[in-house]
Design brief:
single chain; Arc Repressor Mutant, subunit A; disordered N terminus
Length: 135
């Protein structure tokens, strides 16, 4: 039966974009609150390495599935992580696959003009990278 259901097909993710957070913006408190936990930071770092289901992430982080589930809920709520796919277990159970919502996450401790400068720089770097890889 395990051959009938795809267990871990490749995850199709759109081209990630940088998320820039300014210390003066409203979502900063929620992001810092979530990232105040070692488990949440470790889970986010692991998801940057590769997308994972809740059980895979628990194994990689070295904690319980319930603990990872709590932190994933917090990371999703803060807009740092999103569900990118669904895989099937050997039992045919549907499992959500999580990945970072942005790549990279940039913190700016400055005014609005400085945030715009960082935003333009991140956009230009992404365009340069895409252009140079096409050569």
């Amino acid at each position: 039966m395990s051959n009938l259901l795809p267990q871990k097909p490749p995850v199709d993710r759109p081209e990630p974009e940088a998320r820039i957070i300014n210390l003066g913006e409203g979502d900063t408190d929620e992001v810092f609150s979530v990232l105040g936990s070692d488990i949440a930071r470790t889970a986010l770092a692991e998801l940057y390495r590769s997308p994972a289901t809740q059980s895979e992430l628990a194994e990689r982080v070295g904690t319980s599935i319930q603990n990872v589930g709590y932190h994933l809920d917090q990371l999703v709520g803060a807009g740092l992580v999103t569900i990118v796919d669904q895989w099937y277990s050997e039992n045919g159970m549907e499992m959500d696959v999580f990945a970072p919502d942005s790549d990279p996450l940039i913190l700016v401790a400055g005014d609005h003009d400085q945030k715009l400068a960082v935003d333009n720089s991140a956009t230009c770097s992404r365009v340069d990278t895409v252009t140079s890889s096409d050569d």
